[in-house]
Amino acid sequence: MRSFKSLNNLVGWLVFAIAAVTYLLTLEPTASFWDCGEFIACSYKLLVPHPPGAPTFLLLGRLMSLFSFGDVTKVAVLINALSGLSSAFTVLFLFWIITRMARKLVLREAVANSALAAEAIEPSRYQTFLILSAGVVGALAFTFSDSFWFNAVEGEVYAMSALCTAAVVWIMLKWEAHADEPDSDKWLILIAYVIGLSIGVHLLNLLTLPALGFIYYYRRTQNPTVKGGIIVMVVSMIIVGSILVGIIPGLPTLAGNFEVFFVNTVGLPFNAGLFIFLLVFAGLIYFGFRLSFQRRSQLLNTAMLCFVFILIGYSSYLIVPIRSSFKPTINENDPEDVLSFVSYLKREQYGSRPLLYGPHLFAQPDHYEEGAPRYARDPKTSTYKEILPRQQEPGYRDEDKMLLPRIYSYEPDQIANYKKWVDLQDGVKPTMGQNLAFLFRYQMGHMFWRYFMWNYVGRESDVQQAGVVTPFSPSAKSLPPRIGESPAHNNFLALPLILGLIGLFFQSRRNSKDAWVTGLLFLMTGLAIVFYLNQPPREPRERDYTFTGATFAFAIWIGLGVLGLADLFGKVVKADGLRAGLALAVGLLVPGIMAAQGWDDHDRSGRYNSVDSAKNLLNSCAPNAILFTNGDNDTFPLWYAQEVEGVRTDVRVAVLSYLNTDWYIAQMKRRSYKSAPFPISMGEKAYAQGTNDMLPYAANPAVQSVNLKEFIQLVADNNPLLQVQYQEGGLGMMSFPTPNFYLPVDTAAVKKLGIIPKDRENQLVSRMDWSMGKRAIEKKNLVILDMIATNNWQRPIYFSSTVAPSDYMNLQPYFQLEGMAYRLLPLKDPKYDPRSGEEGFVEKDITYQHLLKDFQYRGLQNPHIFYDENNLRFPANYRDKFARLSTAYLSDGNVAKAKEVADKCLELMPDNAIPYDYYSPQLVPALIAGGEKKKADELLDTMTRRSEQMLAYYATKPDASLFEDDQRGYLLSLQSVYRAAELSGDKARSEKAIGLMNQYYPR
């Protein structure tokens, strides 16, 4: 018979294999949306991603990418596989954690009757079966949990972060088992190293330290007390704070202070202060070790070793300034020196949220305080020059502040969303009761417990804000198909929750110490994160991926629930083998139902949507173009396509939000692959941070309109004509005297460039006129205006069609739609109507070639591939462009082309794969004109039926206000149906659509 140890290892690796196969089969084959494209690109070439970076992940990602052996199309799937394998190893460690805790429970009586520890007693065959069953059920339940599975199949940091969490808990339990051995401290040092490495992945791993502290305390203390527990908790939190504040940003900040002092005050060259700091710091470490030897203090020596190994792990961050100094193509924040590196680590660009004490949402600043000085290298003087003006921090009266400010964001959109959760009165300070109500209802209830229940009870759908499905929820058949038939509609019948609660109660009754450790791990990786994040009432995406540490901890209880079941069955079944078999069989129902329900919505193996959309957008641009985009999903897939697969590297992608920073503008002024530098005239001084960040409107009645080139020159010269005082005694700042701008156009030179379509030559203007509006001109707008003035139409300028109209700066009359992007040209469409909501003139030949010939739409025809709400947004953009092209052909009387375009759209994105959306009814006129009225009627009827079903569904939901965006989308779909029916003379369908709009439109 095999020993328990060998069986424990064997079964653990079998569970690992199940998890690994699951994740590798369901991996996305390319870069997913959100940060994945950025992280894959930065891993492949060791670039610098957004703060605070993830260098450990990037280094391992780079290692994985080497196995592509030059096939760049395999890089993404290999880095995604890194997440899959990390997740599988997490499951392996979880299995061993559960079996370790289960062994102590099963052998409790044997341990009590002997002087031996649990690990020294060999379990019987029945006990071994029971222990391993607990590990299998708990580990597999976590394998198929919603949030963890989501993280496991994409190239992001959260899967590896979970691995670090599992690893340190498992290592601590290994220390617990060997704590009496002379060299047991090696396990603590290994934990320190893993924690140091995990800093280069994600900071979530630090939250395990209190639980690890209690494992240490319980192992070293015969009779633990409440007082001792409080001390352990305080010391653990001090260690967390010391790493979070003292080591991660603290040491680089101190190094930066040394650098500024020795360069600016002593007059030493750059980096001298940094080297002096390193010498002093190394000396202090040496004396710390020396003191530990002199005093023969094992505790001090171990603490020093742990500190050093944390630093060794943390040293992965050195690749950030090293790589940044080489000016790579992705170099966010440009953290090449110690001062910019500190800003990068502190995530200063994201601002901060009040935590323990701060203003409420209606508080008005009564004064402003200067922020801390910021410095930048000045090569001319060989010193660090202070960046002026200093940042102005708002100050508030004491009566406008409160403890634990949960209701704090003053953004109008956020204020409206606060009111969905608490009854706020405009301008009235929230009460502490309202403050705590928001904490419990939204931050804890909606943003944690809802996610927890998704994982172990059931999930309603993939719609943002979706609720929980319980055994008592309406059946899927009684729900609208969008909800009930969605692959994301998962009902686990609460079986995982029930089994986990059985495990919780069983462990609490049999081993309260381990139950407290598990519970503390659950609290610190769950509700503690909620409290620290202090989230506002509206987020751009669901945040469940943050809380996999808590679902990991609960999975321990799910596994131990098998022991609880065996104990319960023991009251009616006396045979040990039968009792254990029943417990395992019932326990396996949990991962079984989770796998069956979750496979279809977690299987991304056929998705190419994100990268295809990026390639299609890049291929919409003419050679050597400049393309302005939004951030995140509009940019990261583009970075992946260019950096990894080398697609259209002649196109310069410019992220609008980043153009508000000097470091990004400096990058745009450098060559990147085949893309020439930005054609802008203003120098570094005009774009420096703190200069021209915002140009207010300062009306001058004498100026009716301003020449754009002259305006840019005035700003570059910091001309007094445009200066205004923004506060008493403060520095002057540039302004603009009129919202009306014009740009003379050399029509002869433009014609020679060959960029004007022959059928639009009569629309070429000698002067472009437009109004910017009276809102302030941001730095990003100034950069674009500078480019327009300087470029002289030499390089094509495009805006992604997904950019917010407010960033078009009212230039839409001069836009030309080419594929998925708008090109800026000195052509004015006489038919342009700003009220239509349609931007730009449709260049039919180019757009036809792109949409019907050049673009890739892999997988969008396959009804077996699941596209969640986020993935459906980009196919909707395709449909919009198909509809506009078909309408343009129809307007020209070319019915055959209009019908061809409409049919191709429906062929490439059929309703059973990509459900009809707001833009689909716009294809109806072309279908009817082409003799396909039946197809058109079916489309309109389908849209009407679905909209009615969903609006009726939301009308019955108590939390309907959370789904306002979704409801608005269905109302707009009805409006689109109404317009299409009206255009085709279909009174019955138009009247039904308008009737439903009137019925469900919020009054």
Automatic annotation (TrEMBL):
Alphabetical UniProt keywords: Membrane, TPR repeat, Transferase, Transmembrane, Transmembrane helix
Protein name (record): Glycosyltransferase
Spans traversing the lipid bilayer: 7-25, 77-98, 126-145, 187-218, 230-248, 268-287, 299-320, 488-506, 515-533, 545-566, 578-599
Keyword Transmembrane: yes
Tree of life domain: Bacteria
One Pfam family matching this protein: TMEM260-like
PROSITE patterns assigned to the protein according to its UniProt record, in alphabetical order: TPR
Native source organism of the sequence: Hymenobacter sedentarius
GO MF assignments: transferase activity
TPR repeat spans: 879-912
Membrane found in the keyword field: yes
